[in-house]
Amino acid sequence: LRSYLREENARLRRLRRFYEKVQVLHQDPEASVDNPLLAFSLIKRLHSDWLNIIYSDEATGNAQALHAGLREVEQELPGAEDLDGAARALMRLQDVYALSVKGLANGVFQRSGTDHPPLYSPGRRVSLSADDCFHVGKVAYDTGDYYHSIAWLEEAVSLFRLSYGSWNPEDRSSLEDALDHLAFSYFMAGNISHALSLSREFLRYDPSNQRVTRNVAKYEKLLEMGTGVGLAGGALVTPQPLSLPTPYALLHPLSSQPAPERLLQLGCSYETNSSPYLLLQPAKKEMVRIRPYVALYHDFISDAEAETIKWLAGPWLQRSVVASGEKQQKAEYRISQSAWLKDTADPVVRALDRRIAAVTGLDLRPPYAEYLQVVNYGLGGHYEPHFDHATSRKSPLYRMKSGNRIATVMIYLSAVEAGGSTAFIYANFSVPVVKNAALFWWNLRRNGNGDGDTLHAGCPVLAGDKWVANKWIHEHGQEFRRPCGADPWD
């Protein structure tokens, strides 16, 4: 009987939508079915003309053409990996910026439990559907990440409850699916009583489901054995409170100020660095920090140069890799696409190399510097805390036989609406994205040892499209350009 009623409700809803479409065709107040000619035309159209069109050979041919067109572009469309990656990006933004899941589902980018203004206010608010939230929660569920699955499935259940009984052709899941997955997530998190409550709610909608019935019996038995005790891997465990996953807790926007005596050393200046190249147009230098040495050069490139570099790199972009021992591989802690450009790729790249050499005073001739790396960070794109210099002699960096990376120049090729800052973790400060500016820092101390204070991360992009160009300069060839200091510890 329940199944029959559902089918009847679905049929009535389809008829209602059909009637509404017909109404749209007759908005003219003068066009009334009182006119027998109009009434005849309407009845004929509904009874036979529309059916003739729907079941005509032309309609079948159009459907086949549509399918053929889809097959032609299918390889270029986002796949399952892209969709799951986008779901993980939402979870990453939730963690790093402490965003409320309910707020995200409503299109509001605001921190949980605060009255501060939203971190990002889009011009057009886009809300997530119950099915959208279910998919994000399901991605977390499938990897055993019950911290996130609970938050997103709770929102999915809440939205499905509000729309229960109405049919949405875009929904691939249902309230029953969300309740089922949420109950097991709570079970695995140790909250047996809530898992039992959700499973009982599930049975109100689908009382014949034997699997969930068995789960209810198991949860009841567990609660009889001891309240709040759950199972994981077949063994009894005591539930633990959920907590924010690491290392994202390190990446919240930083606001600490340097010591007062160091504030006196910070400032802005025009620099020529004794280079003829900079005499007519000095570099606009802003000292960001003394330890570690970090400087920001404003208006380092022009809009036209930035667009040229992005255009050159576009066809060659591939998923970024990281060093793993003597190999390089993809990793979830670096989500971006990158490409490498030689200085012979375009005069703009060659001019940029000359400008970097003039500003830093370092030798960029091969093999003393790497090619220009262009990186694109899309939705939730990030790079977790890392050093640019090698911390092991097995690193592929040493294959260049030009020593370790002594310095980094990172050029911001685009602006972002929110997020994307470069956070120096141990030094406890961050630098926001400044379009066309170049960020410079020394990776190595003068004695050749790595500077631990340069541990840094690319915070996830909350809104926008972040493009950067990295130039890594090596220590060989710089012996007389950055000589050792009198202090053996520096």
From TrEMBL:
Q: Which reaction does it catalyse?
A: L-prolyl-[collagen] + 2-oxoglutarate + O2 = trans-4-hydroxy-L-prolyl-[collagen] + succinate + CO2
- EC assignment: 1.14.11.2
Q: Where is the Fe2OG dioxygenase domain?
A: 368-475
Cofactor(s), by name: Fe(2+); L-ascorbate
**Keywords from the named record:** Dioxygenase, Endoplasmic reticulum, Glycoprotein, Iron, Metal-binding, Oxidoreductase, Signal, TPR repeat, Vitamin C
One Pfam family linked to the record = 2OG-FeII_Oxy_3
One Gene Ontology molecular-function label: procollagen-proline 4-dioxygenase activity
* Gene Ontology, cellular component aspect: endoplasmic reticulum lumen
Coiled coil, from the record:
none
Q: Where in the cell is it found?
A: Endoplasmic reticulum lumen
UniProt xrefs under InterPro entries = Oxoglu/Fe-dep_dioxygenase_dom, P4H_N, P4HA-like, Pro_4_hyd_alph, Pro_4_hyd_alph_FE2OG_OXY, TPR-like_helical_dom_sf, TPR_P4H
Reading the lineage from the top rank, the first entry is: Eukaryota
Q: How does it assemble?
A: Heterotetramer of two alpha-3 chains and two beta chains (the beta chain is the multi-functional PDI).
Role played: Catalyzes the post-translational formation of 4-hydroxyproline in -Xaa-Pro-Gly- sequences in collagens and other proteins.
| Family (UniProt) | Belongs to the P4HA family.
Give the protein name, as stated in the record.
Prolyl 4-hydroxylase subunit alpha-3
Name the species this protein comes from. Piprites chloris (Wing-barred manakin)
Q: What's the gene?
A: P4ha3
